[in-house]
Amino acid sequence: MWQQIYDPFGIEFVSALVAMLPILFFLLALTVFKLKGVLAACFTLIVSFVIAVFFFHMPVEKALSAVLLGISNGLWPIGYIVIMAVWLYKIAVKSGKFDVIRSSIAGISQDQRLQLLLIGFSFNAFLEGAAGFGVPIAISAALLTELGFKPLKAAMLCLIANAASGAFGAVGIPVITGAQMGNMTPLALSQTLVYTIPFISFCIPFLLILIVDGFKGIKETLPALLVVSGSYAILQAVTMVTMGPELANIISALASMGILALFLRKWQPKHIYREEGAPAIEKKQTYTGVEVLKAWSPFYILTAVITVWSLPAFKALFAVGGPLNWTTILVKMPFLHQQIVKLPPIAQTETPIDAIFKIDVISATGTAILIAVMLTGLLSRHITLTEGAACLKAAVKELWIPVLTICFVMGFANLANFAGLSSAIGLALAKTGDLFPLVSPVLGWIGVFITGSVVSNNALFGNLQAVTASQIGSQAGLLIGANTTGGVMAKLISPQSIAIATAAVGETGKESELFQKTVKYSFILLGIVCIWTFILAQFI
Predict the structure, then answer these.
(1) Which residues partner with 330 through β-bridges?
(2) pTM, to two decimals
(3) Which residues pair with 331 in a beta bridge?
(4) pLDDT, tens digit, for every residue of 506-523?
(5) Which of 204, 213, 432, 480 is the most buried (most CB within 10 A)?
(6) What DSSP assignment string belongs to 20-39?
(7) Where are the transmembrane segments (predicted)?
(8) 2 has which bridge partners?
């Protein structure tokens, strides 16, 4: 049994700075050294291993086991999900459905700024709410590329758009996890988040158009912007306050997409914007309603299956004592499972950390997507089994390097968590006292940058945020909410997100370029969240 050491140097600031070195190295690797993502992630893992073992005194066998668990999680469930999502997209393209999808979008508007709002913002948010785990970035970025956006630009825009919906991914799991860590109900935390997230959500479409076409673009599309931003933010807020986090993305995204589509039947901008190098405006083709419904079928089949997978009754089938529990394989990691103790205030009491590799063959999100792929293939008359298999082969060929990158990142993330590196950073930030609300979102940002997941971030730092809130007389829900919102801003540039986005648009190896395009927006949005959280802390 090994107890985590949070201050090996006896000076919390120094210990935190050393713990930050892998993160700083990764940032430099992408921005200064311009390494490919897979190399940057690999070297970062090596740096973190050295720091964990030689400075934070983590036993070597435990460090190796933590890395192995991280790499395993990179393959399952994350790699599995991403490959299945891209396979679904390729099936849709191969079957000819995307020609109809593209035409149906063009039928709403030929203006690519408005197509960005429909697909990059609203549809992206819908997929985040329904599936999460990289699916919205992978599919939305690929769709925008097919619509004529340059690949890396499409990836960047989808990453930024995800800032509006990332807190409620996969049916609200990040908020539910944060609430559990703070001993509060998901509805209560959701109601606290309403002070921040709808405001961010309202601003994101404006930011997207500003990036694409400057203030001129905002002026020309202002009515549509107000429609999509207003409908999304208002319905998101209402859902958060009255129903909780589970449907906050899904309801607002579907409504904003539908309302915008209806609005655009009556209004179009005077100037039709097309990206440089985008295909010329196509002659409008007419498809029947049935043809359009069939074309979009991969995505509402996906939604239906994932909705079933998210139902408590379905999950209960695989829980302990459930009739299908035998389909879930649990592997307790040697030298690691309950062999490391997490100490207060990171945990409420001394707590051995579970280290279990879970292979949920049927209940995994990836399997839900696989079923959507199979149903899409069966319902399509234009694709054979051989062609479907070729699409899978192509997806694996495109994604093996990004998945390897994710494995290295997850290895680093697990090592940072089990070795106490993340906690050392968090404890140092918590020492800021009354200024902590100002840096509270930064802690969440660091958590997501390391883990690539808002869920994991809240599990990692949620209790620390709650404990610090009680010490400084602030509201626990506010700081856990700040942890969540700040974390979402790191999703724009987390190594996992960057790897998935570049792979989705066929630009694997250009992670450094995408990172540099996106990083300033991550910091700008984080700064806004920090200032706003500090202001809120003075009043609630």
Answers:
(1) 358
(2) 0.87
(3) 357
(4) 899 999 999 999 999 999
(5) 480
(6) HHHHHHHHHHHHTS---HHH
(7) 12-32, 38-56, 63-89, 116-144, 156-181, 193-212, 224-241, 247-264, 299-320, 361-379, 399-429, 435-455, 521-539
(8) 340
